[in-house]
Each structure stands twice: as C-alpha cells, then as structure tokens.
Amino acid sequence: MIFRQLFEPLxxxxxxxxxxxRTGQALLVDPVxxxxxxxxxxxETLGLxxxxxxxxxxxxxxxxxxxxxxxxxxxxxxxxxxxxxxxxDLQVRDNxxxxxxxxxxxxxxxxxxxxxxxxxxxxxxxLTGDALLIDGCGRTDFQNGSAEDLYASISQxxxxxxxxxLVYPGHDYQQRxxxxxAQEKARNPRxxxxxxxxxxxxxxxxxxxAYPKFIDYAVPGNRQCGECPSDLPEKLEAYCDSMTxxxxx
Length: 249
What we know:
Helix content: 10-25%
CATH architecture: 4-Layer Sandwich
Distance between the termini: 18 Å
Strand order of the largest sheet: 1-2-3-4-5-6
Oligomer: single chain
Shape: globular
CATH superfamily: Ribonuclease Z/Hydroxyacylglutathione hydrolase-like
CATH topology: Metallo-beta-lactamase, Chain A
Number of strands: 14
Largest sheet: 6 strands, mixed
Structural class: alpha/beta
Number of domains: 1
CATH class: Alpha Beta
Order of helices and strands: EEEHEHEEEEEEEEHEEHHH
Strand content: 25-35%
C-alpha cells in the first residue's frame, strides 16, 4: 500500500493519500479545495488514478475539494451517512469496511466534535480527523458537538485500540505529523492520564474559543460536497482559490 500525508497550510489540514499498488487506484481522505491540483500532481507522480475522496465529517474550517476532483477526474465522493448530505456517490457507516483494491479501511463512528464524525483505521494506523489530535482534541461547541460524546468516542473506542496504533490527525498547528494511542493515553492534556468525564467537560466548557471565521460558508458548501460560495468576503477568497504552490507534508 502507498501512503502519503499531505499538508494544506491555510487551514493546517492534513489530507491522506492511500494507494493500491496492484490496481493503481487511490483515495484521498479529507482533501482541501486550494490543493486539488497539487494532489492530482502527487497522484500522477506516483502513477495512481484517483478513484475516491472520503470525508471524516462536514468540515467547518475549509472547503473540501471532493466536488472539484469529481468534476476533474471522475472520482466518487464518499461521505459518512450520518452527514445527511445529498451529494455523495457513496456513504459509509459504523463498523463497515471501505475497500479499494488491496486497501481496506474500517469505519469508526466517533461523534462529539460533530455529530457525524468518523475515523478510519487500517493496519496499524488510525486517521482521527478532528476527534483526536496530537495533545488535544476537536472543539465541541458547534455542529451538534458534545463533550460527553467526544469523551466516550475517544476513551471507550479509540483508546481501546492497541497502544502502538499510529494516530494521524486531521490538523496540527505545530508541524507535528503523527502520534500513537499510547502517547495520547499517557499525556494528552485534555483526555490522557485517566482524566474523568467531569474534568474533560470542564476543560471543554472553558476553552473560550473564537467563533470559527469560515464556518458560515464552509458548512453549507461542504454539505454540497465542496461547492465554493459565491459570496465569500475578499479576506476569505483563498479558501476556494487554487494555490500555485502548496507544500507537501
């Protein structure tokens, strides 16, 4: 299997490329609109054809490139069924296996950051989206988020996976790329060290985070599989513009 971790700097989003060497097929998990051309160039370099784009949830901080990639190369758009979006070609559900050639991902429903959030597990790796981050977790104060649900998703589901499972998050803002279940169980300041549910709720209730600057445009756009809003303010236009250069993570 071919695996690449790609980075989009505007929203600090990781996109994950998984390729089947036998069939030449590839999928992208959480692709981001400004880097759709970059992603296709990476696939071409690897000799792969994009077959699917797969979302962990409806994002609030960027526009997915799923629709754009479908228009460009005919890839199929895959969303969690819980997202209730009408635009995807395929849907995934908890405990299903999403199979592409020799690549098989186990679908794990992990609500809390949002009510539709899913993680994807394969071999010794776990793509945790915005649920479990390195030394952190996703916020729980919008899109039907719930601190109680996120605590259960992580403590009762993700933290029960083998300790040596590698954690690949959907974002990181300090240029970190990978963690492990053992590391997050031991030192995650919000959830590690046996922290209790009341302690976690208190932490999440007192984060005092600003209202997401892009959410009012990103959520409706992503419910349409990545339709860029026509009324974006000038300061946010880069979220839908293609970048001529975007570093590969």
